[in-house]
Write a structure and sequence with these properties.
By secondary structure, this protein is an alpha/beta fold. Helix content is about 45%, strand content about 15%. Helix 1 packs across helix 8, helix 3 runs parallel beside helix 4 and helix 4 runs parallel beside helix 5. The structure holds nicotinamide-adenine-dinucleotide.
Length: about 260
Protein backbone atom coordinates (compact mmCIF):
# COMPACT_ATOMS: atom_id res chain seq x y z
CA UNK A 1 0.00 0.00 0.00
CA UNK A 2 1.37 3.40 -1.02
CA UNK A 3 1.55 5.83 1.92
CA UNK A 4 1.57 9.64 2.03
CA UNK A 5 2.12 10.05 5.77
CA UNK A 6 3.28 13.51 6.79
CA UNK A 7 2.36 15.04 3.41
CA UNK A 8 -0.12 17.82 2.75
CA UNK A 9 -2.09 17.45 -0.48
CA UNK A 10 -4.32 20.06 -2.09
CA UNK A 11 -6.96 18.82 -4.55
CA UNK A 12 -9.01 21.29 -6.62
CA UNK A 13 -12.57 20.35 -7.54
CA UNK A 14 -12.58 17.86 -4.66
CA UNK A 15 -16.30 18.27 -3.98
CA UNK A 16 -17.35 15.68 -6.57
CA UNK A 17 -16.39 12.72 -8.71
CA UNK A 18 -12.71 12.05 -9.39
CA UNK A 19 -11.45 14.90 -7.18
CA UNK A 20 -13.49 13.73 -4.21
CA UNK A 21 -12.23 10.16 -4.67
CA UNK A 22 -8.60 11.38 -4.93
CA UNK A 23 -9.03 13.46 -1.74
CA UNK A 24 -10.46 10.47 0.15
CA UNK A 25 -7.81 8.09 -1.22
CA UNK A 26 -4.95 10.43 -0.24
CA UNK A 27 -6.46 10.90 3.24
CA UNK A 28 -6.68 7.10 3.68
CA UNK A 29 -2.99 6.97 2.67
CA UNK A 30 -2.17 9.31 5.57
CA UNK A 31 -2.03 12.73 3.90
CA UNK A 32 -3.63 15.87 5.32
CA UNK A 33 -5.94 16.97 2.53
CA UNK A 34 -6.94 20.50 1.57
CA UNK A 35 -10.27 20.24 -0.25
CA UNK A 36 -10.25 23.17 -2.69
CA UNK A 37 -13.69 23.66 -4.20
CA UNK A 38 -15.88 26.29 -5.84
CA UNK A 39 -19.10 24.93 -4.29
CA UNK A 40 -18.50 25.41 -0.55
CA UNK A 41 -21.16 22.90 0.52
CA UNK A 42 -19.72 20.17 -1.73
CA UNK A 43 -16.25 20.85 -0.30
CA UNK A 44 -17.58 20.58 3.26
CA UNK A 45 -19.23 17.24 2.39
CA UNK A 46 -15.88 15.81 1.24
CA UNK A 47 -14.19 17.14 4.40
CA UNK A 48 -16.89 15.52 6.58
CA UNK A 49 -16.56 12.18 4.73
CA UNK A 50 -12.78 12.20 5.31
CA UNK A 51 -13.06 13.16 8.99
CA UNK A 52 -15.74 10.48 9.59
CA UNK A 53 -13.20 7.84 8.58
CA UNK A 54 -10.48 9.29 10.81
CA UNK A 55 -8.65 11.32 8.14
CA UNK A 56 -7.41 14.89 8.23
CA UNK A 57 -9.05 17.42 5.91
CA UNK A 58 -9.82 21.11 5.64
CA UNK A 59 -12.00 23.00 3.17
CA UNK A 60 -10.47 25.79 1.07
CA UNK A 61 -12.98 27.87 -0.91
CA UNK A 62 -11.51 28.69 -4.33
CA UNK A 63 -12.58 29.51 -7.84
CA UNK A 64 -9.63 28.29 -9.93
CA UNK A 65 -10.33 30.96 -12.56
CA UNK A 66 -9.44 33.61 -9.96
CA UNK A 67 -5.72 34.29 -9.50
CA UNK A 68 -6.57 36.34 -6.39
CA UNK A 69 -8.46 33.43 -4.77
CA UNK A 70 -5.52 31.08 -5.32
CA UNK A 71 -2.87 33.55 -4.17
CA UNK A 72 -4.87 34.13 -0.97
CA UNK A 73 -5.28 30.37 -0.45
CA UNK A 74 -1.54 29.78 -1.02
CA UNK A 75 -0.72 32.51 1.51
CA UNK A 76 -2.93 30.74 4.09
CA UNK A 77 -1.68 27.22 3.16
CA UNK A 78 1.91 27.53 1.88
CA UNK A 79 3.15 24.05 2.82
CA UNK A 80 1.60 21.94 0.07
CA UNK A 81 3.66 18.86 -0.91
CA UNK A 82 1.22 17.39 -3.45
CA UNK A 83 -0.91 19.48 -5.79
CA UNK A 84 -3.75 17.91 -7.78
CA UNK A 85 -5.21 20.25 -10.41
CA UNK A 86 -8.46 18.41 -11.01
CA UNK A 87 -11.18 21.09 -11.28
CA UNK A 88 -12.61 21.06 -14.78
CA UNK A 89 -15.78 21.48 -16.79
CA UNK A 90 -17.12 19.77 -19.91
CA UNK A 91 -18.63 21.22 -23.05
CA UNK A 92 -20.44 19.71 -26.01
CA UNK A 93 -20.00 21.23 -29.48
CA UNK A 94 -17.99 21.44 -32.68
CA UNK A 95 -15.88 24.48 -33.62
CA UNK A 96 -18.95 25.81 -35.46
CA UNK A 97 -21.44 25.30 -32.62
CA UNK A 98 -19.13 26.53 -29.83
CA UNK A 99 -19.62 30.22 -29.02
CA UNK A 100 -16.66 32.44 -28.18
CA UNK A 101 -18.04 32.89 -24.66
CA UNK A 102 -18.30 29.11 -24.13
CA UNK A 103 -14.78 28.61 -25.52
CA UNK A 104 -13.43 31.28 -23.12
CA UNK A 105 -15.26 29.71 -20.16
CA UNK A 106 -13.84 26.21 -20.85
CA UNK A 107 -10.34 27.69 -21.24
CA UNK A 108 -10.74 29.78 -18.08
CA UNK A 109 -11.53 26.76 -15.89
CA UNK A 110 -9.62 23.93 -17.58
CA UNK A 111 -6.47 25.77 -18.72
CA UNK A 112 -6.14 29.07 -16.86
CA UNK A 113 -7.38 27.22 -13.74
CA UNK A 114 -4.45 24.77 -13.90
CA UNK A 115 -2.04 27.64 -14.67
CA UNK A 116 -3.35 29.71 -11.74
CA UNK A 117 -3.21 26.77 -9.32
CA UNK A 118 0.34 25.78 -10.29
CA UNK A 119 1.48 29.43 -10.17
CA UNK A 120 0.18 29.63 -6.58
CA UNK A 121 1.91 26.54 -5.12
CA UNK A 122 4.77 25.59 -7.47
CA UNK A 123 7.11 28.37 -6.21
CA UNK A 124 6.97 26.94 -2.66
CA UNK A 125 7.66 23.41 -3.90
CA UNK A 126 10.61 24.57 -6.02
CA UNK A 127 11.99 26.60 -3.09
CA UNK A 128 11.77 23.53 -0.82
CA UNK A 129 13.23 21.27 -3.55
CA UNK A 130 10.43 18.69 -3.41
CA UNK A 131 6.86 18.16 -4.45
CA UNK A 132 4.55 16.41 -6.89
CA UNK A 133 1.94 17.92 -9.20
CA UNK A 134 -0.75 15.73 -10.76
CA UNK A 135 -2.95 17.43 -13.37
CA UNK A 136 -6.18 16.01 -14.71
CA UNK A 137 -6.09 16.02 -18.50
CA UNK A 138 -8.11 13.46 -20.50
CA UNK A 139 -7.85 11.02 -23.40
CA UNK A 140 -9.34 14.08 -25.20
CA UNK A 141 -5.98 15.73 -24.48
CA UNK A 142 -4.15 13.04 -26.44
CA UNK A 143 -6.56 12.64 -29.36
CA UNK A 144 -9.39 14.69 -30.84
CA UNK A 145 -12.90 13.92 -29.61
CA UNK A 146 -16.03 14.25 -31.75
CA UNK A 147 -18.36 17.09 -30.68
CA UNK A 148 -16.12 18.12 -27.75
CA UNK A 149 -14.07 20.79 -29.53
CA UNK A 150 -13.37 23.27 -26.70
CA UNK A 151 -12.95 20.50 -24.13
CA UNK A 152 -10.45 18.60 -26.28
CA UNK A 153 -8.47 21.80 -27.03
CA UNK A 154 -8.37 22.59 -23.30
CA UNK A 155 -7.15 19.12 -22.33
CA UNK A 156 -4.41 19.17 -25.03
CA UNK A 157 -3.30 22.38 -23.27
CA UNK A 158 -3.20 20.61 -19.90
CA UNK A 159 -0.88 17.98 -21.41
CA UNK A 160 1.24 20.85 -22.77
CA UNK A 161 1.36 22.63 -19.43
CA UNK A 162 2.41 19.37 -17.76
CA UNK A 163 5.20 18.51 -20.20
CA UNK A 164 6.60 22.05 -20.46
CA UNK A 165 6.55 22.76 -16.72
CA UNK A 166 8.01 19.30 -16.01
CA UNK A 167 11.02 20.07 -18.24
CA UNK A 168 11.49 23.55 -16.74
CA UNK A 169 11.59 22.06 -13.22
CA UNK A 170 13.03 18.58 -13.87
CA UNK A 171 16.12 19.25 -11.72
CA UNK A 172 14.27 21.05 -8.92
CA UNK A 173 13.01 17.97 -7.06
CA UNK A 174 9.44 18.68 -8.20
CA UNK A 175 7.75 16.15 -10.48
CA UNK A 176 4.87 17.23 -12.73
CA UNK A 177 2.68 14.64 -14.42
CA UNK A 178 -0.87 14.31 -15.68
CA UNK A 179 -3.55 11.67 -15.93
CA UNK A 180 -5.58 11.12 -19.09
CA UNK A 181 -8.73 9.32 -18.00
CA UNK A 182 -11.14 7.80 -20.50
CA UNK A 183 -14.84 7.72 -19.62
CA UNK A 184 -15.15 7.55 -15.86
CA UNK A 185 -18.50 7.12 -14.15
CA UNK A 186 -18.87 10.42 -12.25
CA UNK A 187 -21.64 13.05 -11.88
CA UNK A 188 -19.87 14.95 -14.74
CA UNK A 189 -20.31 12.02 -17.14
CA UNK A 190 -23.74 10.97 -15.82
CA UNK A 191 -24.98 14.55 -16.51
CA UNK A 192 -23.64 14.37 -20.09
CA UNK A 193 -25.30 10.97 -20.63
CA UNK A 194 -28.64 12.31 -19.34
CA UNK A 195 -28.57 15.00 -22.08
CA UNK A 196 -28.79 12.38 -24.85
CA UNK A 197 -32.23 11.47 -26.29
CA UNK A 198 -31.52 7.80 -25.42
CA UNK A 199 -29.31 7.80 -22.28
CA UNK A 200 -29.11 3.99 -22.06
CA UNK A 201 -27.80 3.72 -25.63
CA UNK A 202 -25.40 6.63 -24.95
CA UNK A 203 -24.00 4.88 -21.86
CA UNK A 204 -23.49 1.68 -23.88
CA UNK A 205 -21.78 3.63 -26.67
CA UNK A 206 -19.45 5.41 -24.19
CA UNK A 207 -18.46 2.10 -22.60
CA UNK A 208 -17.76 0.61 -26.04
CA UNK A 209 -15.18 3.29 -26.93
CA UNK A 210 -12.83 1.72 -24.39
CA UNK A 211 -11.13 -1.52 -25.35
CA UNK A 212 -12.13 -3.08 -22.03
CA UNK A 213 -15.77 -2.41 -22.94
CA UNK A 214 -16.68 -0.64 -19.71
CA UNK A 215 -16.41 2.79 -18.13
CA UNK A 216 -13.78 3.38 -15.48
CA UNK A 217 -14.46 4.11 -11.82
CA UNK A 218 -13.19 7.19 -9.93
CA UNK A 219 -11.19 4.88 -7.64
CA UNK A 220 -9.24 3.56 -10.63
CA UNK A 221 -8.16 7.13 -11.47
CA UNK A 222 -7.45 7.93 -7.80
CA UNK A 223 -5.16 4.87 -7.56
CA UNK A 224 -3.12 6.22 -10.50
CA UNK A 225 -3.04 9.69 -8.89
CA UNK A 226 -1.78 8.13 -5.65
CA UNK A 227 1.05 6.43 -7.53
CA UNK A 228 2.10 9.61 -9.40
CA UNK A 229 1.95 11.66 -6.17
CA UNK A 230 4.10 9.17 -4.26
CA UNK A 231 7.78 8.33 -4.01
CA UNK A 232 7.02 5.17 -6.03
CA UNK A 233 6.96 7.48 -9.09
CA UNK A 234 10.29 9.14 -8.20
CA UNK A 235 11.68 8.84 -11.78
CA UNK A 236 8.50 9.95 -13.57
CA UNK A 237 8.03 13.53 -14.73
CA UNK A 238 6.31 15.02 -17.78
CA UNK A 239 4.22 11.88 -18.19
CA UNK A 240 0.68 11.93 -19.64
CA UNK A 241 -0.66 8.63 -18.31
CA UNK A 242 -3.81 7.21 -19.92
CA UNK A 243 -6.24 5.60 -17.46
CA UNK A 244 -8.66 4.56 -20.15
CA UNK A 245 -9.26 0.81 -20.35
CA UNK A 246 -7.15 0.71 -23.53
CA UNK A 247 -9.05 3.47 -25.42
CA UNK A 248 -5.87 5.13 -26.74
CA UNK A 249 -3.85 1.92 -27.19
CA UNK A 250 -4.98 1.56 -30.79
CA UNK A 251 -7.80 0.21 -32.91
CA UNK A 252 -10.02 -2.55 -31.60
CA UNK A 253 -13.35 -4.13 -32.64
CA UNK A 254 -16.25 -2.35 -30.90
CA UNK A 255 -18.78 -4.58 -29.14
N1 LIG B 1 -15.33 11.85 -15.65
C1 LIG B 1 -14.65 11.60 -16.73
O1 LIG B 1 -15.00 10.70 -17.52
C2 LIG B 1 -13.39 12.34 -17.03
C3 LIG B 1 -12.58 11.88 -18.06
C4 LIG B 1 -11.40 12.54 -18.35
C5 LIG B 1 -11.04 13.65 -17.61
N2 LIG B 1 -11.85 14.08 -16.60
C6 LIG B 1 -11.41 15.27 -15.87
O2 LIG B 1 -11.32 14.97 -14.50
C7 LIG B 1 -11.65 16.12 -13.73
C8 LIG B 1 -12.77 15.80 -12.76
O3 LIG B 1 -13.89 15.34 -13.50
P1 LIG B 1 -15.20 14.79 -12.75
O4 LIG B 1 -15.85 13.89 -13.74
O5 LIG B 1 -14.88 14.28 -11.40
O6 LIG B 1 -16.06 16.16 -12.67
P2 LIG B 1 -17.19 16.66 -11.62
O7 LIG B 1 -18.03 17.65 -12.36
O8 LIG B 1 -17.86 15.49 -10.98
O9 LIG B 1 -16.31 17.43 -10.54
C9 LIG B 1 -15.62 18.61 -10.87
C10 LIG B 1 -15.52 19.47 -9.63
O10 LIG B 1 -14.81 20.66 -9.97
C11 LIG B 1 -15.46 21.76 -9.35
N3 LIG B 1 -15.20 22.99 -10.09
C12 LIG B 1 -15.71 23.36 -11.31
N4 LIG B 1 -15.30 24.58 -11.63
C13 LIG B 1 -14.50 25.00 -10.62
C14 LIG B 1 -13.78 26.20 -10.37
N5 LIG B 1 -13.83 27.22 -11.23
N6 LIG B 1 -13.04 26.30 -9.24
C15 LIG B 1 -13.00 25.27 -8.35
N7 LIG B 1 -13.67 24.13 -8.51
C16 LIG B 1 -14.42 24.00 -9.64
C17 LIG B 1 -16.94 21.39 -9.40
O11 LIG B 1 -17.69 22.15 -8.45
C18 LIG B 1 -16.90 19.91 -9.10
O12 LIG B 1 -16.99 19.65 -7.71
C19 LIG B 1 -12.00 17.22 -14.74
O13 LIG B 1 -10.85 18.01 -15.00
C20 LIG B 1 -12.39 16.43 -15.98
O14 LIG B 1 -12.21 17.16 -17.16
C21 LIG B 1 -13.02 13.46 -16.30
Amino acid sequence: MIRLDGKTALVTGAGSGIGQCIAETFARAGARVLVAELRAEAGETTVARIRETGGQAEAVAVDVTSEADLEAAAARHPGVDILVCNAGIGHVGTILTTSGADFDRVMAVNVRGVFNTMKAWLPGMVARGSGAVVNLASTAGLEGLVDRFAYSVSKHAVVGITRSAALDHARSGVRINCLCPGRIETPFVRARIAEYPDPVAAAREMASTQAMGRMGQPQEVANAALFLASESAAFLTGVALPVDGGWTAGMFPKA
